[in-house]
């Protein structure tokens, strides 16, 4: 084990725990388009670091180098997902750190943050360290544990942020995700505590009194289908409350899975006032609406719920203009018995890790509606890698594709359309809401500190 890569860059940032050693030897990525721009280039990775970048065909690697022919594929920094549920410990029947890491590698991710709503809850250093260590042993993706804000997610007593932050897991983000920290006094104390430690608080914004029994977005569709509604105000009232707490008490607060047009307006106001608030949006809130519920298929139940077209449009515009910082999947595996049942009995949540890059590329690059401006691959690098690394102050990830940087990379084949099928995913669960949909691009290759973790769908354990 070595910490050679960690700490070289962003030295001012809090360190991670001990990382698995970088891969030794050379790998040549031949003929890639760096950020999808310019002429094809050769990128030589040596001992876990980008050693050379030069015109395609101009680099001669050593005898034992692994050569990947990537003719015209797009090279990006490895993706970072700051919101997943890998279910271990407690629900290893639906996902494990190993299976979730495989899904992450296939999706182009080199770091993920797994939420604390496990069984037992990640509310002590021992559990956080177990998660971190298992991720490093699996060595497909850095799996960072998120610590809970309150003990047992009970919403009563704060956990020991300091002890978890100082543990081998170096916990840098705290969240009760799945539940909202609804008590404003408790949230205020959490903000003050987090500020002293320079850790991030991530809020699942849901005023629980307004969502009792709710299973679908409160609107015309839910009314027609006879489903109990989850109103936008339940999210927005917590967003504005936490923005004001951040304004008055500082700290860094992050809004999980923003889902409404009103949330976008509040975030815009907060950013205009230099309030230290960041936000994420999921691929499903960008691409799906509550009309999907017509089928009463439990796969479309998610929390917060799928909303209306105008919300999705506002979320897309906010991601483009930076009001929303980044994409996070909220990857939430569930067994089929938890999804194939009456809609209001289905567990909320959807898979996300293996489809997210393709969905974001489809929404913002390849299938942009007429009249909207397509984005470029730099945009995807920003919202799926660079911004999450900045928000989390995560060293060694989300770095530029440049000589001397750690080789945490992902390669996208823009000619490889594919059809999403839940049973073909590496995840133990299969609850994708995109079953049978054609997606336009595919991650072909992922590298973690120089190790090829995934190549054409094959995960390299
Ligand atoms: Zn949540």
Automatic annotation (TrEMBL):
<feature type="binding site">
    <location>
        <position position="204"/>
    </location>
    <ligand>
        <name>Zn(2+) 2</name>
    </ligand>
</feature>
<feature type="binding site">
    <location>
        <position position="303"/>
    </location>
    <ligand>
        <name>substrate</name>
    </ligand>
</feature>
<dbReference type="GO" id="GO:0005737">
    <property type="term" value="C:cytoplasm"/>
</dbReference>
<feature type="binding site">
    <location>
        <position position="330"/>
    </location>
    <ligand>
        <name>Zn(2+) 1</name>
    </ligand>
</feature>
<feature type="binding site">
    <location>
        <position position="85"/>
    </location>
    <ligand>
        <name>Zn(2+) 1</name>
    </ligand>
</feature>
<feature type="binding site">
    <location>
        <position position="257"/>
    </location>
    <ligand>
        <name>Zn(2+) 2</name>
    </ligand>
</feature>
<feature type="binding site">
    <location>
        <position position="177"/>
    </location>
    <ligand>
        <name>Zn(2+) 2</name>
    </ligand>
</feature>
<feature type="binding site">
    <location>
        <position position="177"/>
    </location>
    <ligand>
        <name>Zn(2+) 1</name>
    </ligand>
</feature>
<dbReference type="GO" id="GO:0008270">
    <property type="term" value="F:zinc ion binding"/>
</dbReference>
<feature type="active site">
    <location>
        <position position="330"/>
    </location>
</feature>
<feature type="binding site">
    <location>
        <position position="117"/>
    </location>
    <ligand>
        <name>substrate</name>
    </ligand>
</feature>
<keyword id="KW-0862">Zinc</keyword>
<dbReference type="InterPro" id="IPR050138">
    <property type="entry name" value="DHOase/Allantoinase_Hydrolase"/>
</dbReference>
<dbReference type="InterPro" id="IPR024403">
    <property type="entry name" value="DHOase_cat"/>
</dbReference>
<dbReference type="GO" id="GO:0044205">
    <property type="term" value="P:'de novo' UMP biosynthetic process"/>
</dbReference>
<dbReference type="InterPro" id="IPR002195">
    <property type="entry name" value="Dihydroorotase_CS"/>
</dbReference>
<feature type="domain" description="Dihydroorotase catalytic">
    <location>
        <begin position="72"/>
        <end position="260"/>
    </location>
</feature>
<feature type="binding site">
    <location>
        <position position="334"/>
    </location>
    <ligand>
        <name>substrate</name>
    </ligand>
</feature>
<comment type="similarity">
    <text>Belongs to the metallo-dependent hydrolases superfamily. DHOase family. Class I DHOase subfamily.</text>
</comment>
<protein>
    <recommendedName>
        <fullName>Dihydroorotase</fullName>
        <ecNumber>3.5.2.3</ecNumber>
    </recommendedName>
</protein>
<feature type="binding site">
    <location>
        <position position="83"/>
    </location>
    <ligand>
        <name>Zn(2+) 1</name>
    </ligand>
</feature>
<dbReference type="InterPro" id="IPR004722">
    <property type="entry name" value="DHOase"/>
</dbReference>
<dbReference type="GO" id="GO:0004151">
    <property type="term" value="F:dihydroorotase activity"/>
</dbReference>
<dbReference type="GO" id="GO:0004038">
    <property type="term" value="F:allantoinase activity"/>
</dbReference>
<dbReference type="InterPro" id="IPR011059">
    <property type="entry name" value="Metal-dep_hydrolase_composite"/>
</dbReference>
<dbReference type="InterPro" id="IPR032466">
    <property type="entry name" value="Metal_Hydrolase"/>
</dbReference>
<dbReference type="Pfam" id="PF12890">
    <property type="entry name" value="DHOase"/>
</dbReference>
<keyword id="KW-0665">Pyrimidine biosynthesis</keyword>
<feature type="binding site">
    <location>
        <begin position="348"/>
        <end position="349"/>
    </location>
    <ligand>
        <name>substrate</name>
    </ligand>
</feature>
<keyword id="KW-0378">Hydrolase</keyword>
<dbReference type="GO" id="GO:0006145">
    <property type="term" value="P:purine nucleobase catabolic process"/>
</dbReference>
<comment type="pathway">
    <text>Pyrimidine metabolism; UMP biosynthesis via de novo pathway; (S)-dihydroorotate from bicarbonate: step 3/3.</text>
</comment>
<feature type="binding site">
    <location>
        <begin position="85"/>
        <end position="87"/>
    </location>
    <ligand>
        <name>substrate</name>
    </ligand>
</feature>
<keyword id="KW-0479">Metal-binding</keyword>
<comment type="function">
    <text>Catalyzes the reversible cyclization of carbamoyl aspartate to dihydroorotate.</text>
</comment>
């Amino acid at each position: 084990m070595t910490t050679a890569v960690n700490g070289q860059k962003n030295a001012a940032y809090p360190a991670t725990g001990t990382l698995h050693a970088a891969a030794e030897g050379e790998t040549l990525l031949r003929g890639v388009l760096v950020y999808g721009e310019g002429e094809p280039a050769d990128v030589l990775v040596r001992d876990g670091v980008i050693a050379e970048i030069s015109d395609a065909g101009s680099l001669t690697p050593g005898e034992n180098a692994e050569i990947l022919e990537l003719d015209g594929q797009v090279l990006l920094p490895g993706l970072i997902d700051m919101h997943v549920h890998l279910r271990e410990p407690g629900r290893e029947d639906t996902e494990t750190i190993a299976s979730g890491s495989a899904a992450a590698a296939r999706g182009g991710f080199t770091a993920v943050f797994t939420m604390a709503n496990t069984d037992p809850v990640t509310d002590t250093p021992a559990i956080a360290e177990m998660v971190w260590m298992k991720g490093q042993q699996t060595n497909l993706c850095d799996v960072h544990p998120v610590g809970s804000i309150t003990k047992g997610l009970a919403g009563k007593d704060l956990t020991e942020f300091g002890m978890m932050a100082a543990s081998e897991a170096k916990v840098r983000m705290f969240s009760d995700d799945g539940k909202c920290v609804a008590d404003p006094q408790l949230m205020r104390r959490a903000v003050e505590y987090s500020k002293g430690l320079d850790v991030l608080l991530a809020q699942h914004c849901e005023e629980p009194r307004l969502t009792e029994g709710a299973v679908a977005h409160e609107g015309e569709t839910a009314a027609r289908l006879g489903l109990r509604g989850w109103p936008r105000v339940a999210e927005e009232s917590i967003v504005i409350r936490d923005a004001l707490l951040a304004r008055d008490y500082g700290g860094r607060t992050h809004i999980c899975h923003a889902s409404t047009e009103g949330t976008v307006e509040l975030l815009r106001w907060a950013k205009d006032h230099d309030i230290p608030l960041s936000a994420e949006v999921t691929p499903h809130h960008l691409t799906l609406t509550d009309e999907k519920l017509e089928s009463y298929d439990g796969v479309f139940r998610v929390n917060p719920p799928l909303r209306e077209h105008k919300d999705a449009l506002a979320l897309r515009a906010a991601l483009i203009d930076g009001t929303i910082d980044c994409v996070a999947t909220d990857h939430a595996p569930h067994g089929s018995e938890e999804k194939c049942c009456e809609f209001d009995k289905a567990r909320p949540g959807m898979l996300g890790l293996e489809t997210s890059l393709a969905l974001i590329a489809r929404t913002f690059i390849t299938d942009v509606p007429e009249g909207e401006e397509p984005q470029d691959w730099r945009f995807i690098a920003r919202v799926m890698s660079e911004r999450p690394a900045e928000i989390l102050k995560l060293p060694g990830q989300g770095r530029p594709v440049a000589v001397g940087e750690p080789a945490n990379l992902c390669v996208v084949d823009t000619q490889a359309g594919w059809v999403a099928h839940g049973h073909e995913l590496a995840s133990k669960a299969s609850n994708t809401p995109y079953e049978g949909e054609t997606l336009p691009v595919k991650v072909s290759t992922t590298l973690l500190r120089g190790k090829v973790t995934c190549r054409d769908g094959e995960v390299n354990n």
